[in-house]
Amino acid sequence: MGVFAGRRAADKANIVLIHGIWADGSGWSQVVEKLQAQGHFVIAEQNPLTSLADDVALTRRIVSELEGPTILVGHSYGGFVISEAATDAPGVVGLVYIAAFALDEGESIVSAGSQFPALEAYQHLLIDSQGFAWLDPDHFPQNFANDLDPAVARVMASAQAPASASVLNTTAGNPAWKSLPSWYLVATKDRMIHPDQQRWMAKRSGAT
Q1: What is the rounded CA–CA span in Å between residue 208 and residue 205?
Q2: Band of the pLDDT at 3, cuts 50, 70, 90?
């Protein structure tokens, strides 16, 4: 029996929240609170960010233990994860992209953004000796957390979760948004994924 077996709330979908690069599951804290108040069983997973395959495997393992319909929600890079993890995953009934990558087969994070204006944040990547990418803390607040109090943004910069730089050039497989209903929230002042790219991906995927 799985860890989460039998824990779903009756008549409510399970919701699995997947964070992006330079963040962790705690970034969903206020969202989790609201969803729990509505009666959903919610998991904000903690991705290792060691590779796309590792993050997809964790998501699929969690989904496999849940009973009843499940919705996957991905922020930023988390959209890449849910597109891969939901393919042929029993119980997954929908995908929600929050200012997220909804890539098509053969695309990578880097290649998909090449046709849109370059963003300053990616000029400040720091790659450590183990091949993990960090966002320079001096440039983190105004790019990653530009809508937050600067003091809070600086704390987030100190607690950022680096990711293997390999995820930036990993190519997508056949995405689940081609076979599942999806929704997309565009962040109009986003400095990590250009808003025009978000609108383009949302339209292409047929998302609401």
Answers
A1: 9
A2: confident
